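Workshop exercise sheet. Pairs work together: one partner reads the sequence aloud, the other fills in the structure field after running the prediction. Swap roles for the next sheet.
Pair: D.N. / O.F.
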Amino acid sequence: MNKFWSILIASSLLTSCADLFEPAIENNKDITSGQNDPAYAEGILANAYTRNPYNSQSFNDVATDDAVTNQTDNSYLKMATGSWTSNNNPMDQWGSCKAAIQYINLFLSQVDNVSWADDELVNEMFCDRLKGEAYGLRAMFTFYLLQAHGGWTEDGKLLGVPVILTAEDNNSNFNVARNTFDECIKYIYDDVEAANKCLPLDFEDLSSDAEVPEKYRSKGVSYSQYNRVFGKNFRTRMSGRIAMAFKAKAALLGASDAFREGTTVTWEDAANYNGELLKMIGGVDGGFDWTGNTWYKNKDEIANLGAGENTKEMLWRNGKETNTYSLEQAQFPPSLFGGGQINPTQNLVDAFPMANGYPINDENSDYDEANPYANRDPRLNLYIVVNGSTLGIDNKVIDTSADNKTNNDGLNKEDGVSTRTGYYLRKHLREDVSITSTSQNGQPHYSPRIRYTEIFLNYAEAANEAWGPTGTGDFTFSAYDVIKAIRVRAGVGQDNGDAYLESIKGDKNKMRELIRNERRLELCFEGFRFWDLRRWKLDMNETAKGIRISGNTYTIIDVENRKYEDYMNYGPIPYTETLKFDALVQNKGWK
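Structure field:
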């Protein structure tokens, strides 16, 4: 007690009486502080950038028929096996994307008042660019919200999410109803249009005043001033081209089976918006990247990739990481000191055709059940480690058989590291990474946000529905042309002119099946399968299967049952949100 009074008296000698009862002024900035502090103002927008769901790889494929995981605590595993609820949702985008949109709206409320540069012309351009980025980002986050939470309600309405276009504060009404799905699509379109009025197609340096866009050149802007604002230093930011991609992605979503009855979006819209992006790069003939399916292992290309630069395959990507090995440490088989975490399924393996292009269940395929990996589509071994594959810097032979007594690479040899399906992941991995029990040697890595292969496949799907397999609309390339290029790149049908593709190119329904399958293969382990199954309204309960190899006997086994209810074709509004706000109507079936 004596110590207490001594401290109190001493403190009173160092503090005014008022300070004992009133808190000191803190160094916390409010939103208007950014008007004289452009770094602070831009930081508000940066907060939105950090919430991009594709800033990292989630491997949500384990919630589908394409993969399982050996990690028993994996949230996607739990979701796929019956634990998906509106208050336990690994696919949730509500909180993160809505927070990003709030930051964007805060930024837009102040951007015109910020002093970005002393030079008035440069200041105007900075204002334009940053507003354009904000509009493009808001379109992106609205798309991700719509994809994750749009759905049909009990009264038969297709709803999206509440569209909030102004910054919220303590006085705002937070009990806001959901806009219709169609309205959300249109708001995405509007934001993309606003973005493109402010942004260049790409951020690149100009080399002369004559190249400066007319709206700035007429005001006297020089190319050096333009480069200061719109130059290559900003390549990783939201650009006009990237914003257009989200309009194209939103159109494909809206035109798909799960949503089109509740929207005004057409297949022709989706084909046109994706086709416009492809036309800009020269279509199939000029824009297709013939090494795009090996983007993750193109060693020289990755090594020489400058800051913010894109390869021909990439429309938008994450930054390049140097000297990393965490992905390989997680995914290599145990004999290569990895955790073998993602195990492709037999379901996915069976989706790869034969090298002659025929599906393995076609009578012309020459598929041999006793030698199932012979003469297959080269992408099978490119993306998946099968029994007898070589892997790693020393080309180690991987034995996934049940008979393996040498190491833990075999089927179910050790919980938590061994394969549960008889397969390991190869896609995304750098095989020149070396990991031992005592050392690790990493390599450069990067990951895509949007690949042009996705846009080509988007176009093929929509064009086939709008104009048939060989129809082109206003373009010079068709769904057939896209799929032919993709299969040629893969090395499929080289010896027979891809007889299977030729046999179905007049059949819209068979072409639809092939396009969906090519999408499954080309984009595997990139986070598409879950969303594609739902928008196509396909069965999500296909049992995940594997292969048990013993001697020369190959036995297909059930590995993991899926437990999705019909209503789960549409994701839920978070349970806590519906409790707080009675204006939020839940999607049908969810509680």
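Discussion prompt: The CA atoms of residues 63 and 580 lie 29 Å apart. What would you look at next?
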